[in-house]
Amino acid sequence: MAYQTRLLGRQNKITNTSGLAPGYIQANLLVLPRQHARDFHDLCLRNPVSCPLLGMTHPGDPHSIQPSGCITTRDFDIRTDFPMYRVYRGGKSIGSRRDLLDVWSDDYVGFLIGCSFSFEAALTAAGLPPRHQKTNSMVAMYRTNLPLLPAGIFTGATCIVSMRPYRQDRIQAVRDVTRPYLATHGEPVAWGWEAVIALGIKDIQCPDFGDPPDLEDGEVPVFWACGVTPQMAVESAGDKIEDLVFAHEPGHMLVTDYTAEDLQKLGRS
C-alpha cells in the first residue's frame, strides 16, 4: 500500500495525503545544500518534537534513505515521489514544482521529518476521526510564537502547529492515542481557546497553511507540532543559503515503508 501510494505521488495523481495508506508513517521533506546539512541535522536533534528526523539521504543520492527501513523498495526517488514540492530562494517561497529532476545536483541532501498524518488512522480506530478527513479538506496549520531552538545558520525561527478540533472531554483520549507516536510529533502541545492566544494565533479561521477548520459547538482547538516548521527555519536563514532549497508543499507528504510497529522496534515511538 505504501509503495502504491508513492507511485500515485510520483504520477501527481494525489494531493492531500491525509488518510492515505493508513498504518504507514508519512514524512515531510527538506532538501538543502550539503554545507548546511550539519546545521539542519543539529536543529532536528535540538527540536525533536517539531522536527522528528526519520531519515536522510547521502549527498547527491536521491534514491536511498538511511536508515534503510524507512524506504525498502529500490524504485524510489526523493525528487519525484512527493506529490508536490515547494521551492525557496533566499528564505522566501518562490513557487511549487511537480518534481525536482531538473534542479537536483550532487550537492543536495534530503531529510525526511515525521508527520502527524501518521497517527490519524489510530485516532479513527479509537473513534476520534480528524474533522478534516470528514470534510475532505486540508488540516489547518498556523505560525506561532513558540521559538525553535537554534542551530548554526538556523536562528530566530518559530514553530508551526497543526490543529484538529475535539470536545474537551475527548482530549485525554486524543492525548493517549497520539502520545506513543514520538517520531511523528507525539501528543498535542496545547489545546483550548486560551492556547490560541498563548500561541500567538490571531484568527483560528485564517490558517497560514491548509484550509479553514470546521469547529462544531462544544469543540476546542487541539494543536500538535508540525513538520512545516523546518520551512520556517529556512525562512529565518534567509540569504545565508545561496542555493535553492526544496520542501514538500504542506499537506503533500511521502508515505514511507515504516509502520508504527517498526518505530516501536527501533525505540523511536
Can you give me a brief rundown of this structure?
By secondary structure, the protein is an alpha+beta fold.
Commentary on this structure:
There is one protein chain. The protein is an alpha+beta fold. The chain folds into two domains: 1-115 and 233-267, PSTPO5379-like; 117-228, 2-Layer Sandwich (PSTPO5379-like fold), CATH 3.30.2040.10. 22% of the residues lie in helices and 26% in strands. The protein contains eight helices and eleven strands. The chain has helices spanning 2-10, 37-46, 120-125, 131-134, 171-178, 193-198, 229-237, 260-265, and strands at residues 24-33, 53-56, 85-89, 92-97, 108-114, 140-147, 158-167, 190-191, 219-225, 245-248, 254-259. The strands form two sheets. Strands 1, 2, 3, 4, 5, 10 and 11 form a seven-stranded antiparallel beta sheet that branches. It has a four-stranded antiparallel beta sheet with strand order 6-7-9-8. Strand 3 (85-89) and strand 4 (92-97) form a beta hairpin.
